[in-house]
Fold these 4 entries.
Entry 1:
Amino acid sequence: MIYSRPPSFAPVDQGDVFDDCPVAQFESIPDPNALEAEFTSQLRRVYVLTQACDLIQRKVSSVVVAQVLDADQLVATSVLKAADVRGPVRAGRVHGWYFLPKSSSLGLPESIVDLRTLHTVRLELLVDLCRAGKRIAHLESLYREHLAQHFANTYCRIGLPMPYETE
């Protein structure tokens, strides 16, 4: 089984999926003289990327999360074609997007973890979301490590400014 549903008292872990996680986004460049910056806050489905060892040993107070998007909505809004979801995204050939299969029992649609849209949230906020029943799933071992490897490859790849010239 690819997913499980941890009890609300289980500690936050890498691979957890949360609903209604508030994430902030700056709307404009803040004025250096202003006391407050303009930003919006939205409730999003997110996937926990921070390493499990750091979470369990409480070495972090902030957690890196990635947005989880409904694949059907991406197709409906023409961000992706259905064939791309079934083909290169599902096969892991698109840097920055990771496919998650549907789980009827957990109410999860086919989804894409957008590894290019990252947020940092307080660990205590996620603990509160656990208590509120907003942790909806946990991606099990091997699948979780596979996603972590895809995340690492997204950011560690080295792109050349132009292809090699040939004679």
Entry 2:
Amino acid sequence: MLKNKRGEGYIQICVLVIVLCMIMSVFVTFAGTVNVVRLTERNTKTVLEAYVTKNSIEIYNSIKQSTNETESIDADEYISDLAKFCTFVKSGNYYYHKDANRRTEYYISKPRIGFTENERLRLYVSYTLYVPIYFNNIRIGTARIPATVKINLDERF
């Protein structure tokens, strides 16, 4: 008996196309996640610099007098500004960013803010960024990315 082998040549090509699509899907997901990380870091730094500008007289007087009275920063004010700037919605200890369909695009843990060096204006903000990974509109996992943003502001004469 002879078998019809007309369709057997296309099976390898179909499998190859499927594998290539899967690989491209992973790269697109990775690129989207990297974009979210960069966007969040840039927004965090922008809000931190705005916070420093808003409180610059108080911070400057503290540094000038070498008393370092700004050992603690009003984290609640900074977080409130960050939530407004990034349109975050607070739920528990997390701040969520949702897309137009009200699906969670990404979320961050409550940011911690402080000084990296005493008696200098070197600030940091650290948080954990969570990026849900979807496949066919089904959440298959979450990428967890720890992030720290630093700014160093020095006197110039």
Entry 3:
Amino acid sequence: MSTTPVGLERRVGQRFAFHLPVSLRDIANGAEALGCTQDVSSRGVFLFTDLPVTEGSEIELTLKMPSEITLGESMHVRCRARILRVTGAQSLHAEMRFGVAVCLKAYEYLPEVAESSMTFRRISALHGHHEEDGPAARPPGLVAGHRE
């Protein structure tokens, strides 16, 4: 007879399974990449990316936060986050991909932009597309910052 161990749930907020495009920037070295979220909460995100990052480092994420999280309208935000853990790298189509859990520390609302101008390049390892699928758009400028 075996028993299943009971795990301690440390998450404070409810997680929502959203597969959203996200852009990342490593604050220490300025490296940039794209990714896709697996789930999102008001305090954290789990995402996949090809950017090699390390536990404890700080990154900046830009994404459209869904209304389930904002409790209002969906809006573009830029978040400062700390990396909690990085799961082992997986090779997919000769590219490396990492699972990254982050804790959101601060966020800034971004000005409203036309949906078509806020497109993200797709990461071929995640979506099976290549760079020639379209140009990358840079995130718009920042507006007043907010903290949780």
Entry 4:
Amino acid sequence: MFKPPRPASMGLNLAPMVDVMMCLIIFFLLASKIVSAESQPLQLAYAVAAQEVDRAELGLRVTINVRPSHTGNENEAEFVVVDFVMDDEGAQIRERMLQPADLNRYLQGRANRARKNGEELRCVIRADKQVMYQHVEVVLRGCGLAKIAKIIFSTNKGPEPEDGA
């Protein structure tokens, strides 16, 4: 007489799932450290006469974040250029830190490329309120040398809050 086979005990092998989960945890921990180190939020100044500008009106632009140096020296600042570039792959955002001399060459190159394409380049300056004016002046001088006439300062609208927030 034929006996039916005994059902095999089925078990779930969790080792690959644990390996994948550990890799994901490590990835997200490292990625969050990198993002938090590079994306230091800016404390923009307040301006009572500030006006809202529609992003569509900005057109071709380059944004320059001027933030305090990580060294804590107020005579130093970091210039982070955020550039919106249209290429074969579509719109891309490029972000890089430049030195003042490199900033001038970069702005002149971008302005020249825009003029060759028949476009007008605008510069959006986002300066932290802790940064000294001499560092903002570096960006303004670079815009002047590159013949960028349309400059927009990014600020918070309204009076400075009393609590200093």
